[in-house]
Design a protein that fits this description.
6 strands; 11 helices; alpha/beta; single chain; binds magnesium ion; six-stranded parallel β-sheet
Length: 217
């Protein structure tokens, strides 16, 4: 199997939940909401409102905000790239994989401005060989097409196989499996089941990278 490692971005290479908490605190302050509002925003996020347009429609309604949902969402996309961080050890581990001959890439679903901003602000853009963003390509994980684009950007063909590392059971593990990749699932403790069993289960992306280093030796 060729040395191709594709990674999900949110809550895999970066801790989106931590950035979301910072954003929620700022948002509550800016709109003069109570401290309870932060809990409400987090609950709304965790309860599976991944589509931000819908999320902000609910937020607007709940807190009786005058700004449109579209404006609130746009402000969120502008701010989030400045709140996310990629730990230095993650950047270092990516460099280590590349030194071992791996091609590394990012495959992520989300809007172009937000995802691209996060990749650039965190330094991940320079730490990988290529990336494929659903908001730019018009195709979303778990569709194999987005994995194919990411592999191509890394200078290889998906047909020769590789690995997918991510936290989402369907988009990352199901998608990776269907794309013919071996998979490592980042288990964030949500207790969700899998239709496709991952090859490995870890709790931190660093552990996933260690597995890749080991299998390539
Ligand atoms: Mg994710």
């Amino acid at each position: 199997m060729q040395r191709l490692a594709l990674f999900d971005l949110d809550n895999t290479l970066i801790d989106l939940d931590a950035a979301f908490l910072l954003w929620a605190q700022e948002f509550a302050e800016e709109h003069r909401l109570s401290r309870k509002a932060v809990d409400h925003l987090i609950k709304l996020d965790r309860n599976g409102l991944p589509h931000r347009e819908l999320f902000f429609a609910k937020v607007r309604e709940r807190f009786k905000l005058s700004n449109s949902a579209a404006n609130l969402w746009a402000a969120y996309r502008r701010r989030m790239p400045h709140l996310v961080e990629c730990r230095p050890e993650v950047i270092a581990a990516l460099a280590e994989l590349r030194a071992l001959g791996w091609r590394v890439g990012i495959v992520t679903n989300g809007t172009a401005d937000n995802q691209l901003g996060k990749i650039q602000q965190t330094g991940l853009g320079d730490a990988v060989d290529g990336y494929a963003l659903s908001g730019i390509e018009g195709i979303r994980k778990p569709d194999t097409g987005l994995f194919e684009i990411a592999a191509r950007r890394c200078g290889v063909s998906l047909a020769a196989g590789g690995w997918m590392v991510g936290d989402h059971p369907v988009a990352d593990i199901g998608g990776g499996h269907t794309a013919g990749l071996r998979t490592v699932w980042i288990d964030r403790g949500a207790g969700v089941g899998h239709e496709h069993s991952p090859d490995y289960v870890v709790t931190d992306v660093i552990d996933a990278m260690e597995i890749l280093c080991t299998v390539s030796k």
